[in-house]
Amino acid sequence: MPGQAKTRMIPLLGNAGAADLQRQMTEHLLNRLHTLPELTLQIHITGGSLQQMSSWLGDDFALVSQSQGGLGDRLSAALCQGFASGLRHILVIGSDCPDLGEAEITQAIAHLQTHDVVLGPATDGGYYLLGLNQLHTALFEGIPWGSDRVLSSTQAIAHQQNLSVALLNPLPDIDRPEDIHLWDKARARSVAEKHH
């Protein structure tokens, strides 16, 4: 929804432009991941009705309304719901990491066989992927969301909780106006890949 999506991009792109960027990045990620047969993709949405999202994204994905609260609360609630439904391994990913693809997902799933937590470090100090075998709510408490200390804080909590952590390769994500060139490059690569 304009004004609610990619809010840090609004100064550069405006409300509608930031919402359109979110739409493009979501479609880009789903195109990269929908071919992985071992995944059950579930999309947690906010700012639109399930009917609107279904008409946009189609019926190939389970759509769930995000819970209320801050990012940590929403992540914890989504994981709680997933594990309660019987899932044994869950990867939570954001749609703003255009280089995320099959290799990172495959690595993360493999790491969950031997580790409690898998993190995909974003180059800005956050993470683009979190994988768990069970819910550890402490991983979402006291995190300085939106800062360059999200990853390090999460790792520190995991260490305090005696959880083993595996790290994927760092990837950039698109959060701020100065990141927009990364999206332009990712789109160009995606177009080139389709033509080969």
What would your notes on this structure say?
By secondary structure, the protein is an alpha/beta fold. It contains six helices and six strands; from the N terminus they run αβαβαβαββαβα. The strands form two sheets. The protein has a four-stranded mixed sheet with strand order 3-5-4-6, sandwiched between helices. The longest helix has 24 residues, at 10-33. The N and C termini lie far apart (34 Å).
Enter the CATH topology name. Spore Coat Polysaccharide Biosynthesis Protein SpsA, Chain A
Order of helix and strand elements from N to C terminus: HEHEHEHEEHEH
Summarize the biggest pleated sheet: 4 strands, mixed
CATH architecture: Alpha-Beta Complex
Low-pLDDT regions: none
CATH level 1 class label:
Alpha Beta
Number of strands: 6
The total count of helices amounts to 6
Radius of gyration, taken over Cα atoms and rounded to an integer in Å? 16 Å
* Secondary structural class: alpha/beta
What share of the residues lie within helices? 40-55%
- The outline comes out as globular
Oligomeric category: single chain
Q: Tell me the distance between the termini.
A: 34 Å
Mean pLDDT comes to 84
**Beta-strand proportion:** 5-15%
Count of structural domains: 1
Short description:
The protein is α/β, with parallel strands linked by helices and 196 residues long. Helices cover 42% and strands 13% of the residues. The chain has one domain (7-194): Alpha-Beta Complex (Spore Coat Polysaccharide Biosynthesis Protein SpsA, Chain A).
